[in-house]
Amino acid sequence: MTDTQLLDLFKEALTEVAPDKAAQFTSLTLATSIEDLQVDSVTFMELVGAVEERVGRNFADDELQRITTFADLASLIRA
What we know:
With about 80 residues, the protein is mostly helical. Helix content is about 55%, strand content about 0%. The longest helix has 15 residues.
């Protein structure tokens, strides 16, 4: 997947799990940190679930613990 496709996927998933913060997601880049989004851990796990569903993969918990930016999540998808 290209960077643009991944960003679109992330924005779509984020809007699904946190629709009240959708306006924040328009400026999302791969360099954006998860912390910058100011979502709680439950919302982050919902995001991961939505991404996993869309790409047809499940990520190991130890891999997810290392994610700090959307570039990290993109790397998992591309692996």
